[in-house]
Amino acid sequence: MLKFVGKRLVSALFVLFGATIITFILSRVIPSDPALAFYGPKATLDQSARLRKEMGLDQSVVIQYFKYLKDMLTGNWGYSISTKQPVLHELMTKVPSTLEMIFVSIIFATLFGILLGIWAAKNAHKLVDGSVRVFSIAAVSLPTFWLGLLFQLFFVGRLHWFPATGEFDTELKFLNPIKHVTGFPIFDALITGNFHAVENGLWHMVLPALTLSLYSLGLISRMIRANLLEVLSQDYIRVARAYGIKERVVLFTLALRNALPPVTTVVGLSAAYLLTGTFFVEDVFNWPGIGKFATTALLNVDYPAIMGITLLGAMGYLTINLIVDIVQAKLDPRVRSE
Amino acid sequence: MKTLVEFKRYLLRNKLSLVGFLLVNFILLVALFAPWIAPSPKEGRGVENIDHIGFGPGWHHWMGTDILGRDVLSRVIYGARPALLIAICVVLVAATVGTILGLVAGYMGGWIDEVIMRVCDLFLSFPPLLLALVAVSLLGPGLTHAALALVISWWPWYARLVRGQAQSLKSRAFVEVASAMGVGTFTIVRRHIFRNVTTPLIIQAAADLGTVILAAGSLAFIGLGAQPPQSDWGLMVADGRGLVFDQWWVATFPGLAIFITVLGFNLLGDGMRDFLDPRSQK
Question: pTM for this structure?
Answer without folding.
Answer: 0.89
